[in-house]
Amino acid sequence: MVWPRIQKIKINNLRCDITWLQHIRRTLNANGIAGKISFENIINEQNTINREELVSVLTKHKYNVRTELISFYKQKFYEDLRTTIDNETIIPINKDVKDVMLGLLTPPLDFLCEELNKALTKWPIDEQTLIDTLCTLDRQDLRDLLDRYHILYGNSLEEDISSKNEAYLMTFLLLKVKNAAKDAASLTLQDAKTLAETLYNAGEGVHTTDEDVFINILGNSDFAHIKYIAEEYRKLSKPWKKSGRSLRQAVLDEFSQGLKKALVAVLDSAENPATYFAQALHNALQGPGTDDAALKRIIVHRSETDLDKIKKEYVKLYSRTLAEDVEADTSGEYTTILLAIINRS
């Protein structure tokens, strides 16, 4: 950042950097930090919603500012803005655009709960949403999610997962959920070595992989612990290969289908969540058809936290920007609203 030229004056022997203060004030106002943001521009002369201005406000700010918009709209029209958009009383809206707008107007934790509930009630179950959510949250965030889910739906996420018979994947996810309710255990270096040896002897060290061992160890471990275990695992396999075989590569080679995706998600999130979501977005954009559900879910939710980091990882991995690939794979107002979110971060 290039700082502005500073104009200095003296007031009672105190130097006041006028230009500096003006610059700071402009910066704070631009980010919705100082003072109230005016939402009057979203109202047309006919006292109806200016859709372009509404999209601009939704995508320019994070949820703490969008809550002010919700209150403003309620006071102005005596109706919930989400209901207005959902019922398309503004004007007919493309489904994907509507989903993004509604997602941006939903509290981030509630948004994840809604996505999980939809994933569990679909047939077949939306495994990818479950993996992208439950395998990428640390213990405290997952605990908060479980509490909120119970409030919203009247039953626990653990109960909803338990009711699904999806073999190894659901067993692993259920263990992750149960583990979140417990206090974190300590892990010594010797513990990490022992667990790494156990994983090695249950996977590439034997002819038949023991899935239960991987489920138990990785499902019961925090991200910080998994990083240590993965480091020790690489040392174990080093005698066989110069660089050592990573635990991630072992999982890719030894497992298949949903459980493989879940274990990789946990390992990648322990190392760098931004890398995992960059890959997830790339997967959503590649192939014969766009995975719009994943694209919308990840961009909306991660825009509140680390979308900027994800964008940087995306360029490192694919030598293209996320914005370029989104623009190439989507169209119309859907492209516009996604790019507005991406470019804000």
TrEMBL record:
Pfam families linked: Annexin (PF00191)
Key words of the record: Annexin, Calcium, Calcium/phospholipid-binding, Repeat
Record-linked Gene3D superfamilies: Annexin
UniProt entry tagged with the keyword Zinc: no
The UniProt record lists the keyword Repeat: yes
Database matches in InterPro entries: Annexin (IPR001464), Annexin_repeat (IPR018502), Annexin_repeat_CS (IPR018252), Annexin_sf (IPR037104)
Family: Belongs to the annexin family.
Recorded domain comment: A pair of annexin repeats may form one binding site for calcium and phospholipid.
Protein name as it appears in the record: Annexin
Taxonomic path: Eukaryota, Metazoa, Ecdysozoa, Arthropoda, Hexapoda
